[in-house]
Amino acid sequence: MIFDWLDEQKIPELTKSERLMGVLFDLGMATADQLEVITGWSKRQLKDAREGIRSRGKSGEPKAEEQLLHQVVKQVRSMADGEVPATENQLQWIRNGLRALAKSEVKKDEWLRFYTTFQREVIIYTLGSQGNRYVADLMGRTLGSYRELSPGQRLHTVGTTEILVRLLRAGIRPRQWLNTRETTDRLKRMREQWNMEPDGQGSWEVKREYIGPHILPDASVQIEDQWYWIEYDRGSKTGEKIRDQLDQYIQLRAKLGKPIDPVVWVTPNVERTEELRDRIYPKVLAKYPESFPVPTMYFFTEGEETELFVNGEGKETAEGVAGVSGEAQSSEEIQRIQEERDQMEEQVQELQTELERKESRIEYLTRMVEENQRGKTEWEDWTRGLVEHLQNQQGGFLSKVTPGWALEEYMQNNKLPGE
Question: Which chain positions lie within coiled-coil regions (predicted)?
Answer without folding.
Answer: 327-368
